[in-house]
Amino acid sequence: MNILNETNPSILPEDEFEELDGGQSFISDDGRELFEHFRYQADRGQQLLRVDKFLVERMQRTSRNRIQQAADAGCILVNGKAVKSSYKVKPFDTVSIVMDRPRYENEIIAEDIPLDIVYEDEDLLVVNKPAGLVVHPGHGNYSGTLVNALAWHFRDNPDYDVDDPRLGLVHRIDKDTSGLLVVAKTPDAKTHLGNQFFHKTTRREYVALAWGDFPEKEGTITGNIARNPRNKLQMAVFDDPAIGKHAVTHYFQIESFGYVSLVKCVLETGRTHQIRVHLMSKGHPLFNDARYGGDKILKGNTSSSYRQFIENCFAVCPRQALHARTLGFVHPRTGKEMDFEAPIPDDMGALIDKWRRRT
């Protein structure tokens, strides 16, 4: 499907993000995942009618202007193709509304959830997300998410609508991954920032603790990523270029602790669970990554003292040891290069210190 074009990729690029529920999903030609929110089938006797008029007649509490904005954002599909609001619906056309996030089954309630705001101006906001905070409602998390926190933060801003697909998060990270995210406060900012993610001109660096020592202290992992056919909650790496999405991760070993290593990962692409599944495919699952087998003793001896040490480490950092440390991009209004860094959070810092002291 030609959902987006290179001049207006206003839909979220995928990043390391938590599995989300919500309707049928589509994969666009440029590898983005889009979720169907509404679908309408034109009947046999359908008269030619603009798609914005067609939809406003069928949707409650939605204005024609809002539908036109959705079309401008590439969110209105007819028979799987993005259309403008002037498109004329014909008999048997299937009209869908898709977004870069699953459908919110419940109204987004503004919640006073603390935000670690690294930077904010009239165009954008950069936030340091803590581990454990879900980005979008869904998959049993209908409150207490970053979206709920943003709704509270922008509650007095009449120009920010948490449901407007032209605003909001420009990329995502997993629930149990900490680190930096950028939020667009205007449609122009989201389009401009989306272009940078799409063309891979942003600068993103992660820090991770992974099992094993890396024989090559730096390297590049290239491998298509797709859903694991044996486990729908996992992604997997495939050699077949016809399966999945092209993905590239550059890694650099910062420090070795014998049985685990501190590594820096630089993303060239942003796919679901990319760092987690790429490192796992090379025999280096992230430490305490339950989804990819890193929550077991994979390296080391069988002594009781070592087992107790690992259990203590799991307790200190009870999630995958992954942190989105740096984020860089060009400011959408000023053209200025902007770079941000979030220090390693306390749980990962304590984990690294335990291994460093032991070594």
Description:
This protein is α+β, with helices and mostly antiparallel strands and 359 residues long. Among the domains are: 33-99, Structural Genomics Hypothetical 15.5 Kd Protein In mrcA-pckA Intergenic Region, Chain A (Roll), CATH 3.10.290; 205-323 and 349-358, Pseudouridine synthase (2-Layer Sandwich). It is 19% helix and 29% strand. The chain has seven helices and 19 strands. The chain has helices at 51-56, 64-72, 146-153, 187-198, 274-281, 304-316, 346-358, and strands at residues 25-27, 33-41, 49-50, 76-78, 81-82, 88-89, 94-99, 117-120, 124-129, 168-169, 178-184, 203-211, 218-222, 224-228, 231-238, 248-256, 260-267, 322-330, 337-341. A hairpin with a 2-residue loop joins strand 4 and strand 5. The model is unreliable at 1-23 (pLDDT under 50).
Topology:
Layout: E1 25-27, E2 33-41, E3 49-50, H1 51-56, H2 64-72, E4 76-78, E5 81-82, E6 88-89, E7 94-99, E8 117-120, E9 124-129, H3 146-153, E10 168-169, E11 178-184, H4 187-198, E12 203-211, E13 218-222, E14 224-228, E15 231-238, E16 248-256, E17 260-267, H5 274-281, H6 304-316, E18 322-330, E19 337-341, H7 346-358
Parallel strand pairs: 11-18
Antiparallel strand pairs: 1-2, 2-7, 3-6, 4-5, 4-7, 8-9, 9-11, 10-11, 12-17, 12-18, 13-16, 14-15, 16-17, 18-19
